[in-house]
Amino acid sequence: MSELRNDRLLRALAREPVDATPIWIMRQAGRYLPEYGATRERAGSFLELCRTPELACEVTLQPVERFDLDAAIVFSDILTVPDAMGLGLYFVEGEGPRFERTVRTEADVEALREPEPERDLAYVLETIRLARAGLAGRVPLIGFSGSPWTLAAYMVEGGGSQHFARVKAMAYDRPRVLEALLERLVAAVTAYLNAQVRAGAQALMLFDTWGGILDPRLFRTLSLEPIRRVVAGLVREHEGRRVPVIVFVKGAGQWLEALAETGCDALGLDWTVDLAAARRRVGDRVALQGNLDPCALYAAPERIREEAARLLEAYGHGSGHVFNLGHGIHPDTEPGHVAALVEAVHALSRRYHG
Amino acid sequence: MSELRNDRLLRALAREPVDATPIWIMRQAGRYLPEYGATRERAGSFLELCRTPELACEVTLQPVERFDLDAAIVFSDILTVPDAMGLGLYFVEGEGPRFERTVRTEADVEALREPEPERDLAYVLETIRLARAGLAGRVPLIGFSGSPWTLAAYMVEGGGSQHFARVKAMAYDRPRVLEALLERLVAAVTAYLNAQVRAGAQALMLFDTWGGILDPRLFRTLSLEPIRRVVAGLVREHEGRRVPVIVFVKGAGQWLEALAETGCDALGLDWTVDLAAARRRVGDRVALQGNLDPCALYAAPERIREEAARLLEAYGHGSGHVFNLGHGIHPDTEPGHVAALVEAVHALSRRYHG
Question: Which residue among A173, A212, A326 places its CB closest to the CB of B272?
Fold first, then answer.
């Protein structure tokens, strides 16, 4: 493997000194980039794009070619694991993900396949291998998965949902079925992420999109505890370097202290969290990633620069901050505004380092 | 006016002793009740139902007739104020509220009508007068309004929105226009709520459905500060009794301390907030209302009883808790499950009082 020439991301996640605050953007390989649209057109569909390693690698690299970003993230979908467990993932244009089969009973849980990443998710691992080769050490490559709870929510509902009424009813009424499902998902997600590390992922991120919709008791049992178990099962060193783990739970600003105890290296913060207060709350236990509102990128470049300055000042001096949005970039964002943000973060952050 | 025979709600909001914890349900007059459906059918549409005081009064009283609730809330919509300001509210079946005109420029703000509640919102005030007569002192009647920020968000977008991108872009790029709009709304909402008190509302509630989608700086300037200004302008005593004000900001679990300083009597909590921790955080500054997940009502009655017991125990001994859901009741809720909840709260709460 080529030597890593820009290791700001890994150093910031380890809270080791950096020359400038690293930045990458959630969903940076995506629809706001015209070149992404062109590759997707060639693939035929979003799912074919995910499943064709040459094309998935191409879109993984696109944002790194265009912007001075400090990381790439493998292009994939968070629902690849349930798909590999036999649910039949498909996408309805403009309506998001759906599953052909749902999980509603104990029998449904038992019928789930135990995915073997090298066989059932080989296309993701091959994308990682190709992207590592394509990056040639320019920046590190991040691998990721949906969290057990977020995957379970989609698997029970059969897709996205306004209130996640079915999976919540199950949580209140038949907690054993849901716990059995989460048990299966902890194992599958752990194996999947470890396979990504073996294929070349240099950092990992767990996305818990729906942890923030739960009441405090259910949050602890259904979102937090499975995350803790996944993190405990991960390979933490590879190629002679630590593989840091970032945990991102949307809407979990109230639970930062608990999330900092899951064993992860960093917390992803959505934009509703006060970054200065978050740093005080987690102390030196974890690094922090975030947390500009994706809607701030609709503003004029000079305003984007002001918002970047505000967040850098909120985090303050020293390492441990990875700049990012507080959620995925919106598809109607101007690419030029992303360039302005990346430039501003690198330029304005130097005074907080060294 | 008839003497109030059940004043548990008003006593709990004032943190005065009660015999049992009072309960009412956000959106208790609504689609989950078959009798509501029958009245709405007679009205022809949701908006006609809101605008016909006899029918709006009828649905206001329905949940109180059916369940042993401790309060009624006037049946209306949160968007009546922007409608009275000239935006032309209408509803598209299954898609929620829309406005014929939006507010995007300074000229749009200047063109807004200053609503005169007794003229432009007379139908709400008449509903309140009829409902007070119909209640005849059984339980107190709550009046309400959307908060300035929540109304502004709908007015700029022209209806509901996934990300509220337009109003957020305005917040970052053209804050002066948004501040001018909020200024108008603070005046209009204050006048509207005071008119409701004069018409007979015995408690008031401000609904800030979208305060929780803002970053911390914008939350303070766009959501919190206008709420504080509305509360400061409200009539707080009427008919010889204090008129308490409940402020509910969805997704604001991180901001309870700040919200408790707005001058309100109580905070509404959504279901993601830990009720015991919330009580510790706000101390004796305000009462708390909430906060069962509306989805918990999908569970079996014995499970609903357990969840009620859990929340009552979380709040603990003494007055200052008004039981409610953490958000409006879902339209597909079984009315029998509501009955089970109301019964459980009254029965199980007695040990925490007296």
Answer: A212
